Amino acid sequence: MIAQLHPSSRYHRKMCNVVSTFCAVAVIFSLSSVSYAGATEAPAAAKRVEPRSIIVHLATNTPSYSVGNVISFAVRVEESCHLTLISIDGDGFATVLYPNDFEQDNYLPAGPTVAIPAKDAPYQLRLNRTGIETVLAICNQTAKRPLGIGHDFDRERFTIVGDWTAFTGAIKKREEELKARVARENRRRRRKRGKPPAIDHGPPPAADEAEGRTLILLPVSRAAQASRADQP
Predict the structure, then answer these.
(1) Is 86 a member of any domain?
(2) Residue 189, domain member (yes or no)
């Protein structure tokens, strides 16, 4: 899939391409009480109280998709929270679709269905390859981001997570690397003329913070061939 500026957008900065694959809803999983796929947990020394789960509903705008289609998502939560929407393509490469440079406020109130991208958003999500795409929704009650993921929209409009299996197997390490990278970047910014604003991802979610997770598997098909009658 390619994230591109909407044709009617007034934005003039160069738009980067984000590659992944999207398509029709096939299977829906509720992940509100489990860890990221592939993550491992250390054995608890005492009985651990599971954090409260937030119910997240995730769907796409049509039941089927072909290469070249523009798609959107509909999200509804039963408790107000901060949403992160991640795509994982067939090769296991992950990209954060939401929040992004165009829609940075990821707070969702409980109740209403929210469209992503919003109808007036200056970008759109377009399918550009066949295959199976996983779209994961994570909603944190207080934290604005999941553990290990931070955004720097001055550098990239859509946050690249990279290899999903590697990420989920070392989330705590990625969080420490993120903190160190942000500290280095903010030191660099303080030395620059004009002093660009410091990066502030906010704290990661607390261990007992309420959270909801849901994913959908989406298969995308080739674009339908035009019939001979339709051809010039």
Answers:
(1) yes
(2) yes
**Cβ neighbours for 51, distance < 8 A, ≥ 6 positions apart:** 207, 208, 209, 210, 211
Q: What is the DSSP string of the chain?
A: -EEEE-TT----SPPPP---------EEEE-TTSPSTT---PPPSSPPPPPPBPPEEEEESSS--BTT-EE-EEEEESS-EEEEEEEE-TTSEEEEEES-SS----EE-SSS-EEES-TT-SEEEE--S-EEEEEEEEEESS-SS-TT----TTT-SS-EEEEHHHHHTTHHHHHHHHHHHHHHHHHHHHHSTT-PPPP---PPPPTT--EEEEEEEEEEBPPPPPPGGG--
**Quick check: is 198 in a domain?**
yes
Q: Pick 200 or 221 by higher pLDDT.
A: 221
Q: Residue 206 domain-assigned?
A: yes
| Residue-range definition of the domain harbouring residue 95 | 2-37+51-222
Residue 73 CA to residue 76 CA, distance in Å, equals 10
Phi-psi region of 22 (alpha: psi -120 to 50; beta: other; left: phi over 0): beta
The answer to whether 87 and 133 have CB atoms below 8 angstroms apart is yes
The pTM score is: 0.76
CA distance 53 to 139: 10
Pick the more confident residue, 110 or 225: 110
Condensed to tens digits (0 to 9), the pLDDT of residues 99-152 reads: 999 999 999 999 999 999 999 999 999 877 888 888 999 999 999 999 999 988
